[in-house]
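Risk register update: the risk of archive-format incompatibility is retired. Evidence:
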Amino acid sequence: MYNNSILSKECYQIVGACMNVHKELGSGFHESIYQDALEVELSRLGIPFIREKELSIVYKGVKLKTFYKADFVCYDQIIVEIKALNELHSVHTAQVLNYLKVSNLPAGLLINFGEQSLKHEKYVRKNVE
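Archived output:
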């Protein structure tokens, strides 16, 4: 599911904003602190975003009452999911992939502020060129 050319400039800018936050705060804070700081940084850099965007889930044509909430959607195209963990696991990747599936957005970034150096993964929805 990885295609480096999809929205590469935009993803690079978002990851750069995350690196600025991590450089300033380091690791060890709660996820909500990184969300707040990233909101400040994205605004400062002029990167358009929606925080905690609700993503509806449709089952057999029926919109379910339960929904996902993406940490950020940037440029109306990129889901940004933030973690503050010692390490990422496959369940975190699955979360981003599910967000891509239900949102129909082309790309997602999984960012982990919890490690000594910032970790990030880019995912692209299948059939996006």
